Amino acid sequence: MAIMIDLRLIPEIKLTPTLREGVKTLIEHSFDNATFRDVSDIETPVFRILGLTGGQDVVAHVAAYERDVTIGGEPNRIAMLGDVAVASDLRRQGIARRAIDLAHRELKHRAIEFCVLFAYDPAIYRKNGYREMTNEIRLLDRDNMWRTLVYRGSMVCALGDRPWPDDFLDLKGIVV
Ligand SMILES: CC(C)(COP(=O)(O)OP(=O)(O)OC[C@H]1O[C@@H](n2cnc3c(N)ncnc32)[C@H](O)[C@@H]1OP(=O)(O)O)[C@@H](O)C(=O)NCCC(=O)NCCS
Description:
Layout: E1 6-11, H1 17-30, E2 47-52, E3 58-71, E4 74-86, H2 95-109, E5 114-118, H3 123-126, E6 131-132, E7 137-140, E8 146-149, E9 154-158, E10 169-170
Parallel strand pairs: 4-5, 7-10
Antiparallel strand pairs: 1-2, 2-3, 3-4, 3-10, 5-9, 6-9, 7-8
């Protein structure tokens, strides 16, 4: 029997300690411990999409961030998605895709034009409308050094009508 998963949009200020614990556990189980760092400890998401079972177990997670950046020197407030994870026994049922769709709906509502993410596996995000970016990106790297590079796995989804400019992106901070 398929388990019913309730997808919920939770503003960060409404994330209870129990849900936060559930998110941490899901993420720790989903990512390789050697590379894992909880970005939400460093930068605060605006909201999260959580997949919850009837018993309120967290089985899916997407964190949505907003950042004031410049694209080709022009200021723009973009969104970034991070820590996309679905419990291993519930994968390949379209839960991540639905969670990302829900995040996009909210971001459009918040008048965000572009959503960026940094993927381990770009294939996962193509059906959500993402394509690989070729922009040069300036970012604050994990070793606290500012770097300018074309980031393999960086992807963007245009949420509105304006196409993504293929210009220099100053991310003005870390990759989430
Ligand atoms: C990545 C992850 C979140 C996908 O969750 P999911 O709910 O299984 O994804 P969906 O069922 O919505 O799949 C969406 C699309 O992504 C692609 N996809 C998903 N898992 C894939 C895999 N393991 N290999 C290749 N493509 C995959 C498929 O195109 C899929 O669409 P389809 O099933 O119609 O072909 C989940 O596998 C996970 O938590 N992995 C561990 C953590 C992780 O790697 N997160 C992503 C970091 S970039």
